[in-house]
Amino acid sequence: MSDKIGFIDGNSLDGELTCEVCIVGSGAGGAVLAARLAAAGKEVIVLEEGGHYTRADFHMREDEAFPMLYQESGARATKDLSIAILQGRAVGGSTVANWTTSFRTPESVLDQWARVHGVRELGVGALNPHWDEIEKRLSIAQISLEETNRNNRLLYDGCKAIGLEAKTTFRNTRNCFKSGYCGMGCPVDAKQSMNITYLPDAIAHGARVVSRCRVDRLVVEAGHVASAECTVLSSDDYGYAETPQRLRVRAKKFVLSAGAIGTPSILIRSGLSGGVVGRGTYLHPVIGVTARYKDPVEPFYGAPQSVASHALAHRGDKVGLFMETAPLHPMLAAISSSGFGPQHRAIMTELPHLAAHIALAIDGFHESETGGTVTVRPSGAPLVDYPIPPRIWEALREGLRTLIRLNLAAGADWVLSGHDPALRFSSERDLGQLDSAPFAPNRVNIFSAHIMGGARMGDDPARSVVRSSDCRHHSVSNLHIVDGSIFPTSLGVNPQETIYGIAQLMGDRMTQSWQ
C-alpha cells in the first residue's frame, strides 16, 4: 500500500507504512507543515483520526455536521461537565468547522513568551513573512462593515454606544456566499480550510493523507520514536467506532499536530508523560448572552463572526477580555440556552429576533492562572480538567456585564444571561443582579473553542516539552510538536493563524536542519 498517493481512507489499509516524516493530525499545524515539508522533497504521511469530507457532504444540517465534524459529536466537555468544548475532527481538523476568524499573534504575547517562558526565537520579525504568504494563500482579508450581518453589526454598534472600540475581523474566505453555516463545513468551498488548500498542496508534492486512523501511541526506543501504532476507525454513517484493523507507521521523523487535547494524550499513552506534559492547558473560557431585538436579527445567516472588540484585552492586573459574536442555529441555540419546558420553548420561538454575543477570558498571563490539565481515562480517551480560578470568574462576570450593557445600548428589548435559571435584564438598573449571581461550575454556561497549551515550548526542559527553536522534543530526538499545544499561554485572539505561521516557520527550520 505504500505507493498509494493522495487522500486514503484508513479502511483500505492494513499492515505497515513507511515514510521520512509522519505527521499526526491534519489541522492548522499538520497541514501547513506537511505542505512545507513535502515541497522540500520529504516523503510525508499525515495520519488523521477523522473522516475525509468534501463540500458534497456538507448539507448545512446540524444533525449531520456535529457527529461528522466534531470531537464526541460536539459533546466534549471538561471533567466536571462545566465547560463545553467545541473541537473539530476531520481531514483538515478544526479549520473545516471553525468560523473563519483569523488574527496574527499580538506582539505583546510573543514578547511575554520570550520574557517569561524562554521562547526567544519566535518574534514577529520571524513570523511576519510567513503570515504574509499564508494570508495570500488563504485569502485572509478584513471584511467590510457593510458585509457584516445584523448579529455582528449589533456588537459593533453596542460597543461604540458604550465607548468601546470594535473592528471587523479578518476571514479566510474566497467568493464567500455568507450563508452562515461555516460551523457545519462550507458547502461551496469558500472557506479556505486545510482540506481544500494546504493538504492538496502537500499531496501535489507526493504526500499521503490517511483518514480514520487514530494514533494510539508512539513506540519509543532509547530516546527515539520507532513507529506509530494506530487503530483504523469505521466509516459507516459518520461513525468512529473501532475496527479490528491496525496500522503501524515507521518513519525517520515524527510530528505531533493532534491539537492541545490530542497531542498531550498521545504523549501520555506513549509513556512520555513526564514534566509539564498535559499541564498548562488554556481555553479562553467563554461566557455569553442572548439579546432580543424588535426587528429580526436572524443570527443563523451571514458571516458568523465578522466583528470583534479587543478594547478590554489589557486591563492592568485584571484578566483581559475580548468580545465576538456567535451564530445561533437551532441546535446550538437549544444547547446553549437555559431553562426547561415552556421557558426553553419560549426562548427558542424568539430565535429569529435573538443576537448572541460572547466574552472570552485571556487566561495564562498571571502566576495564579496555571490553566487546566489533560490526562487520559483508563480507556485511553482524553480527559480535560479546568478549574476556573477566582480571577477568571471575576473577569467573566465583568464580561457579562459589558455584553449586557452594549446590547441594551444597541436597543435590545431584553438580555438573558446563561445562568440557570437565566437572569433577565431590561435596563442597566437590573445589572445589580450580577453582584449576587452565582459564578461557579454548572451554574452559568461556559464554553470553549480555543484549546491551547499542554505541551508548551521553551528553553528549559523542566518547564517545557519542546524547544522553541524547532519544536523538537527535549528528550526524544526525532519527535517534534507543531500545534496549539506548544503555546505557553493563551493568545487573546482566535488561534488558527498563529498555528499556521508557526507551522510554516518550523517547516523551514526543520528542512534546513534535516539536510
Helix and strand arrangement:
Layout: E1 6-9, E2 15-24, H1 28-39, E3 44-47, H2 62-69, E4 83-85, H3 107-117, H4 124-137, E5 140-142, H5 150-161, E6 167-168, E7 170-172, H6 198-204, E8 208-211, E9 213-220, E10 225-233, E11 242-256, H7 259-269, E12 279-282, E13 286-292, E14 307-308, E15 321-325, H8 330-336, H9 341-349, E16 354-361, E17 372-376, E18 382-385, H10 390-409, E19 414-416, E20 424-425, H11 433-436, E21 446-448, E22 452-453, E23 479-481, H12 496-513
Parallel strand pairs: 1-8, 2-3, 2-11, 3-8, 4-21, 11-23
Antiparallel strand pairs: 5-7, 6-14, 9-10, 10-11, 12-17, 12-22, 13-16, 13-19, 15-16, 17-18, 19-20
Helix pairs in contact: 1-6, 1-12, 4-12, 5-10
Describe the structure.
The protein has 515 residues and is α/β, with parallel strands linked by helices. It has two domains: 299 residues, FAD/NAD(P)-binding domain (3-Layer(bba) Sandwich); 155 residues, 2-Layer Sandwich (Cholesterol Oxidase, domain 2). The chain is built from twelve helices and 23 strands. The strands form six sheets. Strands 1, 2, 3, 8, 9, 10, 11 and 23 form an eight-stranded mixed β-sheet that branches. A hairpin with an 8-residue loop joins strand 10 and strand 11. Helix 1 runs parallel beside helix 6 and helix 1 runs parallel beside helix 12. The longest helix is centred in the C-terminal third of the chain and has 20 residues. It is globular. The model has no long low-confidence stretch (mean pLDDT 96).
